[in-house]
Amino acid sequence: MKTVGSLVRWAGSKRKLLPVLMPYWNSKKFKRYVEPFAGSACLFFELNPKAALLGDLNTELISTYKSVRRDPDLVLECFKRLPKGEKNYYRIREIDPASLSDFDRAARFLYLNRWCFNGLYRTNKAGKFNVPYGGRHKISQLDEETLFRSSKTLKGATLVNADFEKTIARAKKGDFYYMDPPYVVESRRVFAEYLPGTFISKDLERLGKMVEKLDKKGVHFLVSYADCALIRRLFKKWHIQRIWTRRNIAGFSGSRRGTYELLISNFLPSPGERK
Predict the structure, then answer these.
(1) What is the CATH number of the domain that holds 23?
(2) pLDDT one-digit tens code per residue, 153-211
(3) By C-alpha distance, which of 198, 201, 193 is closest to 228?
(4) Which helix or strand (DSSP H or E) is residue 254 part of?
């Protein structure tokens, strides 16, 4: 079966890690796939689970997924109406998304996502999207096949615009939770925060407590995170796998660096655990 691929570009996407992430999933063993930090949800789209729960604090992202799930044709129609070019980019960026219809709002999000610098999603303190025009560093076209396949895959998902703790609170036995939170290394952020106040070290500590609750409920979980002392301390009781990967956050490919990532789980995958 042909895989869907991610609908959106996303800084920190785990697409390059899919070969090592996928063995943790077993469609015969798990009843529902859950991702509290959805972002581009590349693992979700790759696995195409029958039932899923996707949560994210980013209102525009979740709103877009809902519109794509509901009517991809209308989203595509609205997207095609948007004019290209740097001046148009900044004009469209200035539009208040709350003033638009659901489908125009989704089209605006996908448009900005494709034309902005490096697929970043960043806002100012007022919550206003402020990423500059990316021009030469873009995938400007909206792939129609990906759009329609994404819509079909999303029909099996419940979408929630909420803090990760609320999504984790909905856990039940038989769930598989994959969590890829924004990176915070002690007091230094590896990635620029993409929403005001979204994730700090205290939130990582809060996540550490929440995975304890998942384990007590008999829920299988997997967390991916940058290798650092804080994460090793907070999650030391769980299985930890260290892997090498290349980050795609830098603006130019020549400045992108390799780094170590940790995969933390309360179970070990076996070679037979596949999609």
Answers:
(1) 3.40.50.150
(2) 999 999 999 999 999 999 999 999 999 998 874 444 444 445 655 678 899 999 999 99
(3) 201
(4) none
Residues of the chain scoring pLDDT < 70: 1-4, 136-140, 185-198, 247-257, 271-275
Q: Find the largest Cα–Cα distance for the chain.
A: 53
Q: Which of these, 33, 34, 46, 44, lies nearest to 4 by C-alpha position?
A: 46
- Other Cβ atoms less than 10 A from the Cβ of 33: the count is 24
Which CATH number characterizes residue 110's domain? Answer: 1.10.1020.10
The total number of structural domains that make up the chain: 2
Helices of type H across the chain: 18-21, 42-47, 59-70, 72-81, 86-93, 102-115, 144-154, 164-168, 201-216, 229-234
- pLDDT tens, residue by residue, 219-236: 999 999 999 999 999 999
**Within-domain flag for 4:** no
Which of these three, 146, 179, 210, is where a domain ends? 146
| DSSP strand pairing (220-226 vs 239-246) | unpaired
